Amino acid sequence: MEAHAERTAILNELDTLKIPYQYYEHDPAYTMEDCAAFDRKAGMEQDVAHCKNLFLTNRQKTEFYLLVLAGDKPYRTGDFCRALSVSRLSFGPPEALEALLRVHPGAVNPLSLLFDREHRVQLVCDAAMRSASALLFHPGENTATVKLAPSDFFEGFLPALGVVPVMMDVENWKITE
Fold it and tell me: Domains, the chain, ranges and CATH?
């Protein structure tokens, strides 16, 4: 795909589904600190969730997970693996990320599940995201951010893709539903 084609496809899908969103362009955001700086500059509310997105895989690189949690929450590999009853996971290779979600490291996001037509990536979300005032995701590249309501993401976007997330209490590392 050409430059920005993934972003365009994601925004077109949101438009097709009539999911309201706000779109922002900004300098590249590689870290959660970069995202926090954008939040301050854009005047985001305190209870928005600028989400941390981790693309994970097993040793054999046959099972893939996308963990989405609030940016200020830590990721603990052992606790996450125990909660899912899976062997130790590590970060997925860039080639798998590109092949499955059409993104590069630094731009991982759940909106790119649009491109995972075979549902090879299991989405795991922090259950607390449902109570945020808004969710902030990169739409396929880290020079833009999309702001949308949690209900639109969980009850509109994901069901339209046929994606059923595993919801997890990441404070206690337990599956909630």
Answer: 5-175 (3.90.960.10)
